[in-house]
Specification:
The complex is a heterodimer of chains A (81) and B (395). By secondary structure, chain A is mostly beta strands. Chain A is 11% helix and 37% strand. Chain A is built from one helix and six strands; from the N terminus they run E-E-E-H-E-E-E. The radius of gyration of chain A is 14 Å and the shape is globular. Chain B has helices at 26-38, 74-91, 109-124, 134-140, 168-181, 225-231, 294-307, 356-369, and strands at 19-22, 44-48, 63-64, 102-106, 130-132, 156-160, 164-165, 185-188, 192-198, 201-207, 210-213, 216-222, 239-250, 258-261, 266-270, 275-279, 282-286, 316-326, 333-336, 342-346. Classes of the chains: A mainly beta (81), B alpha+beta (395).
């Protein structure tokens, strides 16, 4: 595989062990209108640059981690639990 | 010194056009062709930053079919499929279209039931669909293992006789040559760096070769639409995934049909050349890169050998991947985006190749008349805000 994910609990692992959780976004504030919620749900940056995203280690520690990854080159900058 | 002749007359873009199409893939070329031929628009430019047919147009699995699910999309795909078979004559270029028939395997009774339901919606749209039992299936595809040996034995299948294949490179050439014949300027190596707006109207595009003025700009950039979105300060409901494809050694012809398993997520066909194309699911994580992995190759190999045991010693010789720009509801985005003169033809994800002709036809109609044609009225970007998502599935 082109890259490995250094899981804080399990060490360097194959990305196929994980489930991908998408771009990290912050939910609209309570009472926000429907347009804000639709934006939050369906619309994505999806740019070839570094982004924060969620990964779930399905075949390992079963923990959600935040990964900062370049989605064009798959280079990983930081991983937080 | 041998005499060389350019096959396509590429041009430097002029300073202004009636319509500028961003993206020189199949959708962009098809739109330009229908605009030039059927709507009498004379000054059209197709701008392509890499080369004609670079993206999904050259990296698909050549399948054309209309066995989809949603009633909003079925008439569109049905028309597109019918158009493919007439295009060789229309474009005066052999697209090598073959009506092979597509077989979707079911591995359990519930799956058979689901397929019957799917078949009913397809029949209602006028699409020919048959259900097959294992012995009928064995007659159609003698090399298929319909015994109970595979881990998930075959319970039956859905047969879509009108589906088939078209040679993707031939399609690109056909549309590109037809565009050139009808006076469309094909400009390669021209990268759009900005979209110029005047209030809520588009006035042209900025490129690496300077500004090009145009009252209408059409975005047919495939998996690269988010970059256009950023130029106009918008996000699109699109996430890119890579889909990997493999081809095998060349063999004598043994497989006449396109065989797919929606449950196991693999599909295969034998090309005219003799190699098998192995297609499969999208990779599960977002990607803009084109890569292939050992894991996916191994997965395809295991599945294909499970159902075609004779292929145990065949090698995978070549792999590639393409970008699939997927929306949440697996339906595309066509039509306007709230900016006058700027039209979209994006988010085709898994289905871009098979929809090319209808897409070109209706995009052209939209650009020329400013009215949303009936067949694409459900594909608008506004559906994400007024809760009118299309009930389509990835399969």
């Amino acid at each position: 595989m082109a890259f490995l994910i250094d899981c804080p609990n399990c060490g360097r692992r194959n990305p196929y062990e994980f489930n991908f959780g998408g771009e990290c976004k912050s939910a609209p504030a309570q009472g926000a209108d429907m347009k804000a919620w639709c934006n939050y749900l369906f619309f994505h940056e999806n740019m070839p640059e570094f982004q924060d995203e969620w990964w779930f280690h399905t075949m390992g520690c079963r923990d959600w981690i935040r990964v900062r990854r370049n989605i064009a080159t798959h280079e990983i900058r930081s991983i937080e639990e | 010194m041998a005499k060389t002749q350019k096959l396509l007359p590429f041009k430097q873009p002029e300073k202004s056009y009636d319509v500028v199409i961003v993206g020189g893939g199949l959708h962009g070329l098809a739109t330009a062709y229908y605009l030039a031929r059927y709507h009498g628009i004379k000054r059209i430019a197709v701008l392509e930053r890499r080369y004609i047919g670079f993206g999904g147009s050259g990296r698909n699995t050549e399948m054309i079919r209309s066995n989809k699910r949603a009633h909003e999309t079925l008439p569109f795909y049905k028309e597109s499929l019918a158009m493919w078979y007439d295009l060789s004559a229309e474009l005066d270029w052999n697209l090598m279209a073959q009506q092979k028939g597509i077989i979707a395997l079911a591995h359990s009774d519930p799956e058979m039931a689901a397929m019957r339901m799917l078949s009913d919606s397809q029949r209602r749209a006028g699409i020919k669909i048959e259900m097959l039992n294992p012995s009928e299936l064995k007659k159609l595809v003698p090399s298929l293992d319909v015994s109970d040996k595979p881990a998930l034995p075959i319970f039956g299948a859905q047969f879509h006789p009108e589906g088939g294949t078209v040679h993707h490179d031939a399609a690109v050439w056909g549309f590109a040559k037809a565009c050139a014949r009808y006076g469309v300027d094909l400009c390669v190596g021209v990268e759009v760096t900005g979209i110029k707006l005047d209030g809520t109207r588009v006035t042209g595009v900025d490129t690496n070769l300077g500004h090009i003025a145009a009252p209408k700009v059409h975005v047919a950039v495939g998996g690269y639409s988010s970059q256009i979105g950023r130029m106009i300060g918008m996000k699109f409901p699109v996430v890119n995934f890579a889909m990997q494809v493999m081809t095998t050694d060349i063999m004598a012809p043994f497989l006449d049909h396109y065989v797919a398993s929606p449950r196991l997520h693999f599909y295969t066909q034998q090309t005219l050349k003799g190699d098998l194309i192995l297609g499969g699911p999208l990779d599960h994580f977002q990607s803009w890169g084109s890569y292939t992995t050992w894991e996916e190759s191994a997965d395809r190999a295991v599945k294909i050998v499970e159902y075609f045991p004779d292929l145990a010693h065949v090698r995978i010789v070549r792999t590639w991947s393409g970008l699939c720009d997927c929306t949440g509801d697996s339906a595309p985005i066509m039509g306007g985006c709230g900016i006058d003169g700027l039209s979209l033809d994006i988010a085709w994800g898994y289905y871009g190749f098979k929809s090319t002709p209808a897409c070109g036809k209706y995009s052209a109609e939209y650009i020329a008349t400013d009215r949303v044609p009936e067949k694409i009225k459900h594909f608008g970007l506004d559906r994400f805000f007024n809760r009118r998502l299309v009930r389509e599935v990835i399969l």
